[in-house]
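look at this one:
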Amino acid sequence: MMMQFLERPDYVVKSMPFTPVKATWGDYYVDDVLYRYPSTMLDETSPGSGVWEWSEFIKWYELWSDVDGIRVDTMASDLDLQVDAYVDGNQGYLILNNLEPTNLVVNLHSFGLSSNTVNHVQIKHLYLDTSLGTDGRPVLSDQTVLTPPGSVEIGAEATMILCYTFADEQVPGETAEETKFYGESLSGTEPFRVEKASLETLTAQINGVTVPAGDAEAVLRVSGLFIRDFVMSDDPRNVITFNGHTLDFHGTGAASRSVIRAGSERLRFRCRKRIFRRIIPLPVRS
């Protein structure tokens, strides 16, 4: 969620994690065993001791503690890798968040930095170490390297923040402007749902679109909750056309990563097979 908030600075003014301090009001017992309310910032060293210490949640704040500055343009070829970056004086922060349930190797490429020397790179990596305890424990590793890495490996569902320290101040030389154009509801004038015959086409218009001059990129986001299971699958009956052109949004495994963020098996509720959502790159044409 944090990365999604950061992608929408014009919509989300401020956000913070829900982490009560002690939350003893939420403690409960099962068979005389005390269970703490989850997401607390402080835990007792032992029940009733009155001595409190930081819980594992403090690692999240330690991971993000230094990030600041002006947001700069980033892009990932894999939708299951959320990426963001900021520059602040002579420091740049690259944030990588892995949505995959397995480790992910990421190749790093930079543009516009060739004239600025990198003195060193601090790499913070917050991940779950499954070898610790019964269910694993979060670990925050922190290391500094003198040579910028060409690739990094991020743990399953983990976050990595690389802090680049440059010899000179890094000043963004251009400005990117982002505009969202909202389409009509797929259900038409109905506020929530609409009944359609099998294989009947759903049509919606995206009005008021203005094509910018110069370099640009565009994506089409389509989502909906459908009754029929095959809508979420790679079924040939599923077809999306945009301005009369059929869009390629099928694929399994690595191919599906170009259009699906966090595969359908990751949605942990009973309607997961009926939720259709795609993020489809589009060419920009006037």
